[in-house]
């Protein structure tokens, strides 16, 4: 296919290197695609074609003079709006930060720029990354390219949908309880949550600091690995950053894709993730993937993680507690919105009116819950107990990884649901993260790759692999091994099978060619 | 059962500096009661002998030299996103109300 948006980042890098195409051509193709489909999908909160094309032209000049910054120089990248950028607004999906321009770049953005990647724009997300459907964005929901009446997952539904709809070859996301992996499962794409501390959180607008981790979203395992190689590694600006020397994840993915790489691999299947909560088609594709792994020489064993039963409860104490503290910075003084009240009011009254007007319902719900969990008399019973559950879950993982190389689970219990379906039932929404949350509580890496399409509804399904902390390379290797088998069966990435969605009927959030005008640009 | 009442939600909203409307208080009281019933189950799982984990990958003594580096924000940058400032400081409305 000659359409440049259908190529992977790795293929685009090769074409840029051998001069078959230019970064300006590749970037323009993606901007055209965004202009054509994003009125329907609404994956982007902000694009700035002039800025992107200028970065692309600079990349072409570097290539012409034989001095590319990296193998990926000139490849376009979408950036989740939780990551701050100096040249585009950063809102984290919230009204309270509408139009806000950061005076500095997030470290991962700096590293992407230093590698010559071309920023395409900022992607939609649940407000402050609180949600599993992107419906909690203050700027309207993103729609799933597989079925535009359905949610794209969350909180990083914008990044996942952008990649699935061929608006970007890859994207940056953030994962606090599954916000990279669950949207990957829902949209038939790849999403990786790295080991806690292995990718800098500097400039990622904090949700829950002990859980947040930045990572890549893409259509193939290799593309995720290539992006991870760019953004990962120690950063002195993040005091939780690990000083480990990391291997090449792209190399791990390439060698994992070779025949025979899965031979002798020990895969633990987590027995807790089965049963009624899990949709039939999700389990069917999960079991098929396990059979493929076994046929390729992997050994499949059952593993029990008894404490994950308490993971969701612990998570919904730890996250709100940390979020209520992190979001205290939105005080109407230093940045963002300030409400005006009659007679001026005191600074506290202005602050309270601003936070009432600037935060959406899910953010308020979690801040109040977190404030409750941290109050005197409740701290030990709630927050303290949740931290003990964290220890129990880490111990379960330690025990499991003593006998297996990786663990496998379905990434999430169901396929994409209809927009609005779970909005009035926060607990039903929270239950979607049952299989992804434990990795964040334990700090270990997890990856979701497509395992097929659920027969009952024709929607994509993902399989998740988990590895011990610091063994991110193992995940790329195993995921690439299974992906190679699946791609051989499908004839290419799962996203190639996505039906063409109807772009003729713009949704209420549809905008003209450049969404730039729809967000208040600049401070 | 949880002890979430409308009065408690109003008190928590005051601590969190969010002016909730009466409707929001009613809604949140109902929702939080259900949510707290679920999350409270953690106390049954956590016994006294289990240590707490606050951080997934523990690091200790993350220090740096106490010197100003060349990548700190300038005053102008720090003020660039403020709703109101006087060129060198953030401006706010009255700190104290009439009754204080």
How would you classify the quaternary structure?
heterodimer
User: How far apart are the first and last residues' alpha carbons of chain A, in Å?
Assistant: 42 Å
Total count of helical runs of at least 4 residues of chain B: 4
Element-by-element helix/strand order of chain A:
HHEHEHEHEHEEHHEHEHHHHEHHEEH
What do we call the CATH topology of chain A?
A: Amidase signature (AS) enzymes
Q: List unreliable stretches of 5+ residues of chain B.
A: none
Low-confidence stretches of chain A: 504-523
Structural shape of chain B: flat
Q: Can you give the helix content of chain B as a percent range?
A: 25-40%
Rg calc of chain A: 22 Å
Global shape of chain A: globular
Mean pLDDT of chain B: 92
Q: Give the count of helical stretches of chain A.
A: 16
Number of E-type strands of chain A: 11
Structural class designation of chain A: alpha/beta
- CATH class designation of chain A: Alpha Beta
Name the helix and strand elements of chain B from N-terminus to C-terminus, one letter apiece.
HHHH
Q: How much of the sequence of chain B is in beta strands? A: under 5%
Approximately what portion of the residues of chain A adopt beta-strand conformation?
5-15%
Bin the helical content of chain A. Answer: 25-40%
The value of Rg of chain B in angstroms is 22 Å
